[in-house]
Every structure is written in structure tokens, then in C-alpha cells.
Amino acid sequence: MKKGFEIGQSNEIIKAGKIYDLHNLYDFVGIVLKGKDRRLQLLFEPNPEYGKGQLPISLNFEEIDYLEFSPNFGTQIISGLDEMGYKNPEDRDDEWLMDEQQATSNDHLFFRMDGGDFIRVHCQNADIVEATTLTSI
Q1: Integer distance in angstroms from the first to the last C-alpha of the chain?
Q2: Average per-residue pLDDT in the chain?
Q3: Cα separation, 122 vs 61, whole angstroms
């Protein structure tokens, strides 16, 4: 997987020296999945209290070759991201996530949302995009 970002601490994405604290400064808005194009977006808006001055962002995944959602994903309110990291494709124990230095290009990105829901994805290209408004891919 080629990424235009790195995962810093378990709740941060870093791109070109800028840190996006997805746990504290942003609220999870939702996903856009374009199955025909094998694309996925995770959408985040600045938290009204803690994220003032931040721009909305999307995490974009192209040429997806693995995608998994926790059972019943989206049936309860999900407002935030708890942590993210990497998992080996065969590793189903999500209590421990690898960091950027431990991961390889074959490992899945793992996003644990509040309430225990998760998204697990692997693709050819991934990036973070800042925008004045959220738009789908």
C-alpha cells in the first residue's frame, strides 16, 4: 500500500509535517463507498469545541483489495475515532495494533471507532485530503 501519510500516535495522521489529531480535534461523519470504482472515503469534520480552525478532511482509499466492517457497523451512532494502526492480514486480535515502524506494505489499516466498531482496509493507494467542504470521490 502506498500512502501519502503516516500514522503518528494511535490517533494521529501526519502528512507533510502537519498533524491531524482525529481523536481529539475531529468528529467522524461517515463513509462513502464506491464499489464499482473500488474506492472508499472516511469523512471527518472539525469538532465544534476542540477543532475550531481545522478544515474538514477525508481519508481516501483507491484500488481496494480488502475491506471489512465490524458486524452491524453503522447501526449505532459513531461520532469519533478511538485509535488506528496496522494489522497483519491473518491477525484477528484487534486488542493490539502495530505502529508505522512495525507495519509492512501488506498490512491492513485498522480504524477502531468509538463504541468498538471498526473498519479494516487494504488498498493500493491511500491519502488524506483537506477541503473547505466535504465532497465525495
Answers
A1: 19
A2: 94
A3: 8
